[in-house]
């Protein structure tokens, strides 16, 4: 029997979640396609972007709440962000840019009800240019659209829910942080270094090759299995503040796992004295 954490999104076909530069070149002129580049600053976008792509600062889709950085903003705030990008209720969305920022937007759009309609560009801008894709310095002109959010709060888990499932054999708790932080090394804002008991370390960068592309599917599956994610398990991803975990969320979804994000992540967990830390 699947854990109660497994209710919610069903598995999506891998080719709906990850697209190649060649696919994007063939579909770039589609009127129902929106390409978004997510960056921490505007400089990488201004240096050259995929023609027609729209810029989104990572800061627009994270906020501080209760002393926790990088939390999900309110649905109303996210609704305004999507409409300002010209994202409406129909069509495909392809996200590129900083890998963590892109993954964070992927998660945000799934949370808002666009699962199956949003994908990451494998390899990002480097893959686009290697495939012969042109870059533009022009800011695209587009109309704001009406976006109807259909939030799925079940994709988010909080500390209490994680604690209740620490000994649940159908839940795989995966930590996206660098191994040194997982092992108890210093980490900014973390009062009690270490990790959540029972968690496995899957540093998000190790899931990409040297060119920034996602590793082969069979290698990703091997890695997840080796870190305790059984075929029918629900994956719960966390990190320090939830952004690195967003990339792990994406890869887990790509592999077909029911997946949840602990957005408060280890800063939230470690500052609560009664919660155990290893």
In short:
The protein is an alpha/beta fold.
Describe the structure.
By secondary structure, the chain is an alpha/beta fold. Helices cover 30% and strands 17% of the residues. It has two domains: 9-130, Oxidized Rhodanese, domain 1; 154-270, Rhodanese-like domain (Oxidized Rhodanese, domain 1), CATH 3.40.250.10. The protein contains eleven helices and twelve strands. The strands form three sheets. Strands 1-7-6-2-3 form a five-stranded parallel sheet. A five-stranded parallel sheet has the order 8-12-11-9-10. Helix 3 links the parallel strand 2 and strand 3. The model has no long low-confidence stretch (mean pLDDT 94).
Compile the SSE list and pairings.
Layout (H helix, E strand, L loop, with lengths): L13 H4 E2 L1 H7 L5 E7 L3 H4 L7 E4 L5 E3 L2 E4 L3 H10 L7 E6 L1 H13 L6 E4 L2 H7 L25 E2 L1 H6 L6 E5 L3 H4 L17 E2 L15 H10 L7 E5 L4 H12 L4 E4 L2 H6 L8
Parallel strand pairs: 1-7, 2-3, 2-6, 6-7, 8-12, 9-10, 9-11, 11-12
Antiparallel strand pairs: 4-5
Mean pLDDT, all residues: 94
| CATH topology name of the largest domain | Oxidized Rhodanese, domain 1
What percent of residues are in strands? 15-25%
CATH architecture of the largest domain: 3-Layer(aba) Sandwich
Shape: globular
Give helix % range: 25-40%
Gap between N and C termini, in Å? 29 Å
Largest sheet: 5 strands, parallel
For this structure, what is the CATH homologous superfamily of the largest domain? Rhodanese-like domain
Please count the beta strands (DSSP E, at least 2 residues each).
12
Number of helices: 11
Count of individual domains: 2
What series of H and E elements makes up the topology?
HEHEHEEEHEHEHEHEHEHEHEH
Radius of gyration using CA atoms only: 18 Å
Going by helix content, strand content and strand pairing, the class is: alpha/beta
Low-confidence stretches: none
